[in-house]
Amino acid sequence: MVDLLNIIETPHYDNRINNIEIHSYNPYVNSSLNHNDEIRIPIQQQDLVVLPSESFLFIEGDVSAIAANNATIDANKLFLDSNGTAFLFNEIRYELNCAEVNRCKNVGITTTLRNYAFLSSHESTTLKSASFDINSKIPIKNFQYFSFCIPLNKLMGFFDDYKRVIVNARHELILIRSRNDSNAVYCTMDNINVKVDLVLSKIQWKIPHITLEEYTKLQFLNIIEKDHLITMTYRSWELYEYPMLLKTQNHSWSVKVSTKLKKPRFIVFAFQTNRKDNVKKSMAKFDHYDLRNLKLYLNSASYPYDKLNLNFANNNYAILDDMYYKFINSYYNTESKYIMPMLNFENFIDYGSFVAIDCSHQNESIKSGIVDIKIEFECDSNIPENTSAYCLIIHDQIIEYKPLSGIVRKLI
Asked: Average pLDDT in the 48-59 region?
């Protein structure tokens, strides 16, 4: 806050950083980029000051599309899905000094739910180069050769929350390709089965290198020499799937049993029916299926307190939209003004249809001992066949490392 009466304050300039350069790192020489392959991208040089939170993946490739029975493909009806590049990978891991720091499984669904829940309307407009844009469709013909830049802070919780530099450490990013690319694209051609492959020719990890001015460099060398314990805190994203719901109206799902150190802070719940590996349906959309009520139980505590009493047939889902608006502001701890989420009231039902629950404030019965996470929900009609339920759990994580000895320890 500006002191309006301090008229003799002298200006202060931060000159601790001399230069910031983006350096590119490639996978090991013998790595292939095909389906199911493990792709490792190392940073072996240790005497660096890097900023992982601003790093990104650069991906190049081309498209191969084949229709059954040699049918003609209308390229105007074959699209890269929103967040389609995330569906290229089944899993992403980040390791520091050969110790795992963060992992994201089922990357496409996890990041789609995360981005819907936590991206602001302004931030979402800057992610077209990462293929995340719900307002436009990219026909296959427009990117037969394609290149995308995917910020890692939209793929993993560590890069999203930990905004500081890391010094004197070895880094490695591990990517596991999906078994096919059916979830990355969708097709609006009727009665034609199409197989699409996004053939990757290049993957690079681009990360900022920081050059410090001399006095600051000496301070950092002193930290390294004394082997100071450095604490890194962030929020981890864990996705759980109920792959085949029963065709009933009432359901009870025991999601997991968590330790008190990994208590959920935020939870996003969503449905999808017959979308997985189905190019005729977009994986970037979620279904509501006449959800009436939902309760999250953390031991004996329940969220939300009141019943939702939704009625999608009569467009009575304003309470979900209100929870969504408050959810993003609680996540970023904003008080003075609201962050406008990327989905407005009109397209929330088309793309989202999820339940966002803020359970960051918890009573003593949850703060001690183990936590049994259970979700109970009811619908106005029976759940259709091939319906999956997803539960994205966001919890705190703490990592400690020593820059000289290279010790990395996960506390939570």
From this structure: 96
Sketch the domain layout of the chain as residue ranges.
17-228, 233-398
Under 8 Å CB-to-CB from 14, ≥6 apart: which residues?
none
How much of the chain exceeds pLDDT 90, in percent? 53
Enter the pTM of the model. 0.91
CA angle 302, 348, 271 (to 5 degrees): 55
Q: Measuring CA to CA, which residue among 265, 261, 267 is closest to residue 239? A: 267
Q: Would you state the structure tokens that stand for residue 179, as one six-digit string? A: 């078994």
Q: What is the pLDDT of residues 138-173, one digit of tens each?
A: 777 666 788 899 999 999 999 999 999 999 999 999
Q: According to DSSP H, which parts of 296-336 are helical?
A: 318-331
The tokens describing 225, both together, are 């020499």
Q: Would you say how long the chain is, in residues?
A: 412
Annotation: CATH topology of 17-228: Adenovirus Type 2 Hexon; domain 4 (2.70.9)
Q: What topology does CATH give the domain 233-398?
A: Adenovirus Type 2 Hexon; domain 4 (2.70.9)
How far apart (Å, rounded) are the C-alpha atoms in residues 299 and 255? 12
